[in-house]
Amino acid sequence: MTDFDTKPTHTSYWASFFSPTAPCAAAHIRTVLARLLGTDGHAAASGGEVQHSRHFDARTGEAVIGGLVDPSIFGNDGKRPGVIVLPTPLIHPACRAELAQRTGLSESEVRAVGRFDTCLEQGRAVSSDRLEQSVVDRNVIFESGGAKALRALLTSRGLPDDGLIDHVPVIPPAQRPHSLTDAGVRLPGTIGYAFERFIEALQYSSTLQDSMLSSL
């Protein structure tokens, strides 16, 4: 990570959240989120929460309210970042090694717990053998898996939960320009499409989790 990545005024600052350089990845992510949310003692850099996965209204061509280019969030010049509030915490991929070190799990176990492929039991990941034998119910995996389980483990040990995230910065529109078709239709670029898919995946996951909770 270069020095300019640590300065919010630099164009690479918000993008650096997604690819921080180890071994200081968790610390950098914490700093970026503090600057985004204003928990560092300064006014929040974010202009507001992005709640919709679309950029422009298909009929009017105008920015979708609460969407990925809404000027009330990003400013008329599109230079402010937005924020996505996660329905449940996630593991930042760059921090798996640090989380493994703090929890005493392997990186693959951290990944598996975060993906709900397994869960924690007395501070340890349930083995694949026990899962294959159906010793552990899927509802138990849902209740005792995910980043929330890792956070609970770290909290119980008095350890920081850096690397577990509840918010994701949305890169300012000015840094993710859209394209224009021959018909004059504005289309989001590659980064914009990635944010669309990410928000849609979160919405689907939230719906799925609500369904699982109702069945418990």
Instruction: Average the pLDDT over all residues and give the rounded result.
Output: 88
- Count of individual domains: 2
Strand percentage lies at 5-15%
- In DSSP terms (H or I, runs of 4 or more residues), the helix count works out at 8
Order of helices and strands: HHEHHEEHHHEEEH
What does the oligomeric state look like here?
A: single chain
**Uncertain stretches of 5 or more adjacent residues:** 1-6
Task: Report Rg.
Answer: 19 Å
Largest sheet, in brief, is: 2 strands, antiparallel
Distance from N terminus to C terminus (CA atoms, Å) equals 45 Å
Any idea what the shape is?
globular
- Which structural class fits the helix and strand makeup? alpha+beta
**Counted beta strands:** 6
Helix proportion range: 25-40%
- Within the largest sheet, what's the order of strands? 1-4
